[in-house]
Design brief:
about 80 residues; mainly beta; five-stranded mixed beta barrel; NA-bd_OB-fold
Length: about 80
């Protein structure tokens, strides 16, 4: 193998953990939500699940990524208590 990759190099898990995002599709038990996170010089959408496995996180809520499952899934928690 010559090392050529016909696709962009993915971010490793650690580089996503701790990033902040905003919920664009409600997250909750039994729901696959969506968040937008600023990464790689832009903003990207990721499928999202609640890190604690329970509770709903509504659209517009600021969240923090606690786990990343490549390529496009994250587990998040509320960034601020309200």
């Amino acid at each position: 193998m010559n090392g050529f990759r016909p696709y962009p190099v993915a971010m490793d898990d650690a580089s996503m953990v701790g990033l902040m995002g905003r919920v664009t599709g409600t997250i909750g038990p039994g729901l696959v939500g969506e968040v937008i996170v600023r990464v790689r010089g832009g903003a990207e959408h990721f499928l999202a699940h609640p890190a604690d496995g329970s509770g709903r996180i509504e659209c517009g809520t600021v969240v923090m990524v606690v786990e990343h499952l490549p390529p496009r899934t994250v587990y998040v928690t509320r960034a601020y208590d309200s």
